[in-house]
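Q: Second attempt. The first request was missing the SMILES, so the protein and pyridoxal-5'-phosphate are both included now.
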Amino acid sequence: MTDKFAALRPATRLVHGGTLRTPFGETSEALFLTQGFIYETAEAAEARFKGEDPGFIYARFSNPTVRMFEERMALLEGAEDARATASGMAAVTAAMMGQVKAGDHVVAAKALFGSCRYVVEDLLPRFGVDCTLVDGDDLDAWRSAMRPTTKTLFLESPTNPTLDVYDIAAVAEIAHAGGATLVVDNVFATPMLQSPLQLGADCVIYSATKHIDGQGRCLGGVILGSRDFIDKNVHNLLRQTGPALSPFNAWVLLKGLETLSIRVAAQNAAAARVADALAEMPGIARVLYPGRADHPQHALAMRQMKGGSTLIAFEVAGGKAGAFRFANALGIVGISNNLGDAKSLVTHPATTTHQRLSREVREGLGISEGMLRLSVGLEDVEDLIDDLRQAAEAAAGGAPLAKAAE
Ligand SMILES: *Cc1c(COP(=O)(O)O)cnc(C)c1O
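A: Got both inputs this time. The predicted holo structure:
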């Protein structure tokens, strides 16, 4: 990245990085809603297709607004290069498929976003790529899963929905010792709270649909890594197969990036307050929040993250019925499977995002019938706490704390 903003701090990069300004000198990033580009001469077209002239060719390959988004993301993440995709899942699929061929092997943590788990567990094996799933916090399990054919390791941390935290630097070391790469899905941490490339990962992917948009408008994804990683594994795959980000969505996401640092800081601070408040509410059996001292991997979280997360998982007494009573009683917090939004959202993973998994597999992952996942938004934190408290009281049937906790 030769961008002059590379030396400046993240919030500055988020406002200015990667901007391509037209001769009109517009303040806001231009929305180039164009599929193609006109060449001055036939010779110019030939030169561009030969790669002798770096200009744009076709929006499936790239587009100035999409390129601005990629450059800003690369600057933010400290990556040499980035490629935008139509969704987070397009980013995961390309980053994984791009690295393997029949006969290869991948290792992934069991606790993955449902669709990510489909890619490694169902899709890759259909093309002759073996997959081993391990407990992400068991470093010996990662080590013993390695084979001579292992090409890449994949994890998300904190995980969805239980907010387990895995040691990215240690898993990267295991990958590299075996000649493999590590891909990290950094959606839950956001680029503001965790930098996997700095911890040794080779590739980071985001669903930009989440905090990067942050206002519930559009889908998007991005793959970040070294220039070599991008060129070798994903550049051609994306160009020839076509999961391109729409310029309009790239523009929305660019505007989202301008406010990412203040939104995540506010949501993270509010989540820390909400997690502590939830832990004291009636009928809340357990709160899982990496920023709390009672989180199983709290020390690791504080070492590799800059905050406790904008998400909280918690367990409502009374199983599915208790969790449903709690969710249905909420007045401000919406019921939705999305996350990272300005609006606080709650989801019941066992019946939505993780309903595809059997009950046994879910229980093995710690996803109980009473678990809710809360994405903390930008509302006044006192209003949120009041809303959650009245829902907890309603779910516990208005019973006093001691009785409801039974
Ligand atoms: C949402 C999400 C994805 C998929 O992103 P889409 O934009 O919905 O395709 C992948 N990983 C994690 C952790 C997510 O939360």
